Amino acid sequence: MIRNQWYVVLESRKIKRKPVGLVRFNEKLVFWRDEDNKVHCIHDICCHRGASLSKGCVHKDMIACPFHGFEYDATGQVKEIPALGKNYEVPKDFRVKAYPVREAYDLIWMWYGEMGSETDELHFFDDLKSDYFYSGFSEVWPVHYTRAIENQLDVVHLPFVHKTTIGKGMGKVVNGPVVKWSENRMTFYVNNVEDHGQAALKASEIKNYESLFQLQFQMPNTWQNIISDRVRIFAAFVPIDDHHTEIIIRMYQQYIKVPILGKFLGYISNYFNKIILHQDRDVVMTQIPDRTDLKMHEKLIPGDLPIIEYRKKRNALLNLDVKTNHET
């Protein structure tokens, strides 16, 4: 996993006052809300006897272990051991790892890095921050998160995997595509056309590419399909472990703002998006190897450029993290 990044890890609605235990990044974590409704996250393994803290309860701002009542604060420090009395000074090494978390746009973001090293900015898509209404769902795929992400960067598969839905009637010749980066955000422009015996255009040969259909991917794990000025499909690809990814899908729209009608539109959209997503899932589950890397035994083609660019960026960020940790 790329460290020192803000990841979307789950939806806000899934965290109440009761602790929630989840696996993220191959680690058992517990999330809870304090008295001020602020979300916190620490390891879900008590440092005393290894019990799951998510089976405990929230007491004011702290979470209490269900086994012996050890109370942890948001930094992972044990603040009270009931068996030793309220005035007992708990040693500093009675603690578990904690991760910074923030809540924004009805999503929970987790800084996968050291406490205190987090950056201020959450890189959400600017045009989705206001004036859009959304509906959505989530599901778990038995695949590594890199495979799930690359599926949404793949502009070649549409007329084959989705031949009965969004790829119906789509041309099979892939011009380009054109890929542009702005820091860690990729925008790629799609121009799939009918095959009339012509060769596919190189990205450099495509004129006025800004007017083409476009999609965006924000490192490390969010994506949007810019269907129109008033409709977008958003996705977050949440790493659970090396073999599972939770995918959060939302449709954002500006057409219907009446709650009842908007809910009905959301129901229809979710139904259709699940059909499309499951067409993808059934193929992605078959891919070998389980995860992707910069150098693999795949024979890529020019139409795979968004995937190639993603692998390069991911590799660069992984190497930057290794270099930074080595220097510190």
In the CATH hierarchy, what is the superfamily of the largest domain?
Naphthalene 1,2-dioxygenase Alpha Subunit, Chain A, domain 1
- How many angstroms does the end-to-end distance come to? 19 Å
| Number of helical elements | 4
Q: What is the total tally of β strands?
A: 18
Strand order of the largest sheet: 12-18-17-16-15-14-13
Structural class: alpha+beta
- Poorly predicted ranges: none
- Radius of gyration equals 22 Å
| CATH topology term of the largest domain | Naphthalene 1,2-dioxygenase Alpha Subunit, Chain A, domain 1
Let me know the average pLDDT.
94
Number of domains: 2
Fraction of residues in β-strands: 25-35%
Architecture per CATH nomenclature, i.e. the level-2 architecture of the largest domain: Alpha-Beta Complex
CATH class of the largest domain: Alpha Beta
Order of helices and strands: EEEEEEEEEEEEHHEEEEEEHH
Note the overall shape.
elongated
Describe it.
The chain contains 4 helices and 18 strands. It is an alpha+beta fold. It starts with 5 loop residues before the first strand and ends with a helix. The mean pLDDT is 94.
